[in-house]
Amino acid sequence: MDEIFSSGIGEFDEEEVYQKFPLDLNINAEKSKRVVHELARTRLSNSLIQAVALLRQRNCPGVVAFLK
């Protein structure tokens, strides 16, 4: 999941993540989906915090580079 979230393209294959991975790993699909959502929420929260910190430092080019 870390590779998918840090690939830089901003999207992933829902069928692969929500159906194929749980099946391959023999884990509960619903629980897996909740874990993926929580991980995404945490990553977004951390990104927002970092972007705000860069803005407070008046580092606008850093924010733009960070969000790309």
TrEMBL record:
Example of a GO biological process term: protein import into chloroplast stroma
GO cellular component, one term: TOC-TIC supercomplex I
InterPro entries documented for this protein: TIC110
Protein name, UniProt field: Uncharacterized protein
Organism: Nyssa sinensis
